[in-house]
Amino acid sequence: MTIQLYTFDTPNGRKISVALEEMGLPYDVHVVDLGQGEQFDPAFLKISPNNKIPAIVDTDGPAGRPISVFESGAILIYLGEKTGLFYPRETAARVAVLEWLMFQVGGFGPIPGQVHHFVAMKDHGARHYGLERFMAETRRLYAVMDRRLAEHEYFADALSIADFAILGWAWRHPRHQVNLADYPNVQRWYRAMMERPGVARGFAVPMRRA
Ligand SMILES: N[C@@H](CCC(=O)N[C@@H](CS)C(=O)NCC(=O)O)C(=O)O
Fold first, then answer.
1. Do 186 and 146 meet the contact criterion of CB atoms below 8 Å apart?
2. Is the CB of 45 under 6 A from ligand 1?
């Protein structure tokens, strides 16, 4: 059955299309235009009560019943459990995936997202403090990732949903003004990820209305 993906062309949206493509799951894209305030549409709030993309509806959910899922981390875990792909069953391997998935959802997303906000501020005086604070923290997070990837090919023991989650935000490195050459292990991982055909399809699928 085809999964219904409610999304927009953002890092959090892209990580789910990348995961769906890599898992080979068929899906339909429903654009939720954040610029038009469509995330506040009552019909969308029924599946995503925090008025944020992404969200999915799987008509073929557990016991064959439909299920909706919001929060990108929950969606990735759901899809990993549904397919048995990119989300290991064995506890130690699963813990490593969960650690790096939570690292992304709790840090490497909200923090560079603040850089995107302050970079766009017109009032340069007002933006100075926020930009400095969140750029420093963003760079610290890249350094954490770089150290991890110095000793691992992927964030966990093997390619996992954590890589898809982190990739969504690393994709926006020009916008949060990070030069990947400063983080050579992240750069190596990023290039390898972007060369995957499933990843390329996940970034190419249209998520804006023409
Ligand atoms: N913790 C959420 C964050 C999702 C999120 O921030 N989505 C943004 C776009 S990237 C959004 O929908 N913003 C609309 C709004 O806040 O009104 C997740 O990981 O799914």
1. yes
2. no
As a whole number of Å, the CA-based R_g of the chain is: 17
C-alpha 147 – ligand 1 centre gap (Å): 28
Q: How many CB atoms lie within 10 A of CB 38?
A: 17
Q: How far apart are CA 80 and CA 86, in angstroms?
A: 6
**CA 196 to centroid of ligand 1, rounded, Å:** 26
Residue 124, pLDDT > 90, answer: no
Instruction: Examine the pLDDT at 1 and tell me if it is beyond 90.
Output: no
Q: Residue 56 and residue 28: Cα distance in Å, rounded?
A: 10
Tokens at residue 182, please?
A: 């400063």
What type of residue is 38? Answer: E
Residue 145 buriedness (CB in 10 A; 0-12 / 13-18 / 19+) = buried
Task: Please state the pTM of the whole predicted model.
Answer: 0.97
Cα(138) to centroid(ligand 1), Å: 18
Length of the chain equals 210
pLDDT in tens, 62-89: 999 999 999 999 999 999 999 999 999 9
E strands, the chain, in order: 3-7, 27-31, 55-58, 67-70
Give 78-122 pLDDT, tens digit per residue. Answer: 999 999 999 999 999 999 999 999 999 999 999 999 999 999 998
Atom of ligand 1 nearest to the CA of 40: 17
Is the separation of the CB atoms in 55 and 70 below 8 Å?
Answer: yes
pLDDT of residue 60: 95
